[in-house]
Amino acid sequence: MTDGGDLSQRISAALSIQGFILRGGFNFGADESAPPGSSGAPAKSVLLVGQAGSAPWPYFSRWRETQPGVPENPLDTWSRQIIGEVAREFGARAISPSDKPYLPFQQWAIRAEGLKPSPLGILMHPQYGLWHAYRGALLFGTELAIPPPEIPIHLCDLCVGKPCLNACPVGAHSASGFAHEACLSHVRGPDGTPCRDGGCLDRIACPYGTEYRYPIDVQAFHMAAFAGL
Q1: What is the pLDDT of residue 21?
Q2: How far is CA 35 from CA 28, 89, 100, in A?
Q3: How far apart (Å, rounded) are the C-alpha atoms in residues 69 and 126?
Q4: What is the distance between the alpha carbons of residues 229 and 227, in angstroms, rounded to a whole number?
Q5: Residues in CB range of 180: below 8 A, 6 or more apart
Q6: 4Fe-4S ferredoxin-type domain spans which residues (predicted)?
Q7: pLDDT tens digits for range 136-178
Q8: In the 3-class helix/strand/coil scheme, how is the chain assigned residue by residue?
Q9: Which of 72, 112, 212, 222 is the most exposed place for a label (fewest CB within 10 A)?
Q10: What is the rounded distance in angstroms from the CA atom of residue 36 to the CA atom of residue 141?
Q11: Model confidence pTM above 0.85
Q12: % of the chain at pLDDT higher than 90
């Protein structure tokens, strides 16, 4: 079993150059159907890669300015490139949440960090609130010495009034789930300017992790990607 602590520190240092962070990990069980690692054999362990707040945005923006054209899904393209370089450095295989067939990134994140979903479906982090993301993962052919996560308090259980369910003008989020088509129609329509320019109003209404809230231009970028604008 590889010393996961030393490896994690070295990988963290490499990722931090572009604003990324490690988001925990775990070893696959012998009875699990793990995706292949760099050798093609089933991986033994996985470390998740992501961000807190908008830390990678300046690095991504500078990269985007150097591109001769506009790549399809530019943030995914850049993230794959950066995480792929780190993977090669440390003998791992890089994967992305948008790779097909889709892998259970949210379930992996819950397992790696002990988080639970918010009413919006985004995992609630005890420090970052809803302002974080998972951008990829590193698959290893050996088991790593990864300590289990400390299970954090689920802040949504402490939240009175659930403002995240009351800010959207079309009630896109509710106890019954996400009304995708209603949200999409509103964002694309004439009344959707506040959402297009400033981000999801339900997400912004969450009182936790506000110091990590994405800047307006970052939220507008993600909303445009969601709406296909």
Answers
A1: 98
A2: 10, 20, 12
A3: 39
A4: 5
A5: 172
A6: 147-178
A7: 999 999 999 999 999 999 999 999 999 999 999 999 998 889 9
A8: CECHHHHHHHHHHHHHCCCCEEEEEEECCCCCCCCECCCCCECCEEEEEEEECCCCHHHHHHHHHCCCCCCCCHHHHHHHHHHHHHHHHCCCEEECCCCCCCCCHHHHHHHHHCCEECCCCCEEECCCECCEEEEEEEEECCCECCCCCCCCCCHHHHCCCCHHHCCCCCCCEECCEECHHHHHHHHHCCCCHHHHHHCCHHHHHCCCCHHHCCCHHHHHHHHHHHHCC
A9: 72
A10: 8
A11: yes
A12: 91
Distance separating alpha carbons of residues 206 and 10, to the nearest angstrom: 34
Residue 95: name the closest of 138, 52, 153 by CA.
138
Q: With 90 as the cut, is the pLDDT of residue 52 above it?
A: yes
Backbone phi, psi, residue 13, to 5°: -65, -40
Structure confidence at residue 3 (pLDDT)? 62
Distance CA 208, CA 211 (A): 8
Residue 75 — φ and ψ, nearest 5°?
-65, -40
pLDDT of 1 over the 70 cut = no
Residue 69 tokens read as: 């054209």
Average pLDDT, the chain: 94
Peptide bond preceding 36: is omega within 30 degrees of 0, i.e. cis?
no
The structure tokens listed for 77 are 């393209």
